[in-house]
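On clarity, I found the account of how folds are encoded harder to follow than it need be. Since the whole study asks how a given chain folds, the encoding of that fold should be made plain. For illustration, here is how one protein appears when written out as sequence plus structure tokens:

:::
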Amino acid sequence: MQKTKLLILVAAFTFVFVNLASAQVKDTVLKPADTAKIKLSKSKLDTTAKKPMTRRDSVKAKYVNPGKVAGRKAVFRSMIIPGWGQLYNIQILNDGYGTRAGKSQVFQKLYTGGKIAAIYGGATALTLSLIDSRKNYKRFLTEAQYRENNPGKKSDLTQYSDQGVLDGKSLYKRNSQIVYFSYGLLYAANIIDAYVAARLHFFNIDDNLSFRVMPSMINTDSMYGLNLTPALKLSLTF
């Protein structure tokens, strides 16, 4: 009887031990399954992240506006050295870029070269004017200071009265300020001209432009009924 009870206890203990062992085995088997799922999810994310670009996306990524690029280069050069942007525009013509490639560009090159000459010619004229204005300003200033320290005496500019000397000093000082302001305008005009000319190289400026004017009627409906107004219709084709 005791042997039977012992056998029953051993069998029960063995059954419980086997169940615990099997549970542990299941847990160890499930763990690599979870890591595999994680790896699969990562691979899915990688495939979604490395999704091939569509044609529309590739066009957006590869498109570069050549007019903007040329304009920026021309502005950068003109800011460093006035006239360099215009020389860059001549280089664009020589390289055959833009919508006027293959056409006669002699006039365009002469026109651009004339603008470079105008820039430096204007700068030279302003410089000569500034030198003259500063020279006369110092002359009138020295005379005004001498007459202030020596009342009733004149060392130079004897043909001018005291008020005339003061007016001359103010005049040439104002002329110098105008020259400085003109330098700024010339510099800005040089930059703007280089940018606009560079952008125009890539605009469609051919001669295929036509227009047509024809009579038409404008329908202005109102609560009182149909109301027609005569008008002209302009159609542009380019």
About this structure: The radius of gyration is 44 Å.
